[in-house]
Amino acid sequence: MPPAMQVKLLRFLQEGTFVAVGGRVQKRADARVVAATHRDLEAMVREGAFREDLFYRLKGVVLRTPALAERPADVPLLAARFLRRVAPRAGFSADAHAWLAAREWPGNVRELKAVVESAGALILPGETEVDAELLRLASGDPSDDGATVPAGHVDPSAGPLDAALNELELRLVRDAMAAAGGNQSEAARRLGVSRVGLIKKLTRLGLR
Description:
Blueprint: H1 3-15, E1 17-19, E2 26-28, H2 41-47, H3 52-58, H4 74-86, E3 91-92, H5 94-102, H6 108-121, E4 129-130, H7 132-139, H8 160-179, H9 184-191, H10 195-204
Parallel strand pairs: 3-4
Antiparallel strand pairs: 1-2
Helix pairs in contact: 1-3, 4-6, 5-7, 6-7, 8-9, 9-10
């Protein structure tokens, strides 16, 4: 918050008066203020980046929300809730629960939400389980092995051999998915690759 805004907020908290944007008449408000921050305001006061009088005006009852890493029991509950939003019938495998519990979640609940919802969006129709490999892929841990291209596209700049191999891979992956009825795990088994490897191929080949 810029220093000028800090002064205005302090004046409002002390006097309970304000002038609406575009207005000229001073009005009075009877309000209770709830402030939230992820910054260390006491350190900012010592550094001169935050007004000390405003800090003590705001510091009434302090409620500290522990980081997600400090409350691991909340992780499976929150993860299940986030997954239901994007895949109501899906659940987590045992190794997925272990992966969720082992991660430190430096981004707290927002990071957990983003990873779980991304993993849920990767589930194909007919599948109802999110495993650890899918979570790792959604978290961005595995390296991306290619950009998405339109379905059936073969890079025109590739040589004859590369183009033929791309076309063969496209046909094999498409046939495996069709034979497996859209089930990623079964298609991966038929192709002899991991499920994450198959998802990467589906994305790169434009089949997702």
